[in-house]
Amino acid sequence: MKTNLLKVSAAVCALAITISACNSGSKTTTTTTDSTITDSTTSSSLKPAGPAPEWGKTIKPEMQAVIEKLASYGDKPIESLSAVDARKNHTPTDAVMDLVKENNIKMPEAMVDTMGKDIDVAGGKIHLRVYTPKSGNGPFPLIVYYHGGGFVIANLDVYNASAQGLAEQVGAVVVSVAYRLAPENKFPTAHNDAFAAYEWAVKNASTLKADPAKIAVVGESAGGNLAANVSIMARDKNIMLPVHEVLVYPIAQSKMDTESYKMYANAKPLNKAMMAWFTEKYLTSMTEAQNPKISLVNANLKGLPPTTIITAEIDPLNSDGVMLANKLSAAGVKVNSRNYEGVTHEFFGMAILVPEAKQAQAYAAEQLKAAFKK
Length: 374
Prior knowledge:
InterPro entries: AB_hydrolase_3, AB_hydrolase_fold. The chain has a single domain, classed as Alpha/Beta hydrolase fold, catalytic domain (Rossmann fold), CATH 3.40.50.1820. The chain is 33% helix and 19% strand. The protein has helices at residues 5-12, 61-72, 83-86, 92-102, 160-170, 189-203, 222-236, 259-263, 272-282, 318-330, 355-373; strands at 35-37, 112-121, 124-133, 140-146, 173-178, 210-220, 244-248, 307-314, 335-344. A 9-stranded mixed sheet has the order 1-9-8-7-6-4-5-3-2, with helices on both faces.
């Protein structure tokens, strides 16, 4: 990334500490119909420079300001680049951090310590970042977190705010997983890495000051797909199931003709062309797109843990989340879901700027804490 990664890591780590406990008075649903969050309360005076974009007329001011900042860098469209070059593009995290700096927004002190750990997996090694609460002696609940990026781009720094926000809001140890990326590592490498990291976390929970009986999985976008697959693999391999899974705008199927793909084909920071590019980079052939690991709606979902699904309105993957919630519910899985209006893909980690991100992270934390108490 063009932003120095060490600086990003140090600064982004505080992004989510400002999360409020506000849930806007909205209702949690145990059906497959998303509750829609429309709270327009803002915690800053952040204003966009121009009118709402054609692809997102309902976009909230803070969200639009982030998207405008991202566009200001002038990067080439990801779908026009090689994977190596795409990884050099600015990220939504860069845009957030620059807006924080430009608007003199104070960064809170971190409430967690972090350490890195390399583990062996089939065919190589992967890196983990472990977040541990500074207060309390444990054992803490344990969350294994999977970042987004279409299986091709992004890293632990880009999604640091989400992982740290969960650790701080839940009071849990979070293990964030740097699974290997495509096209250097084709399907199902990321899926296998994700499960290997979960197995490692279960086996090493006590050394992490964590309780192996209280473990959950969380993922965003491609990471949401991975988190769900980890639960499926744990069930099939007869090892301990997560007590809960939180899937944030997960990739859940491969057809790009859903309602949200049609409505938000040209959205930012994720659009239909990028999704096609991600798919081509990760899969060896397009026939693999129907594999249940990619198209979760085709998977056997029975016996999975209670699931929280979070979606963004202005997102090609919005329908994926709804479809997966329907399939999970039909399989007898308890599903709670919320849709956040006026925000785009990648909003979840923007709690320091975007009120809806504060609400979504607080909601995810609430769901996880309730699961850990059972």
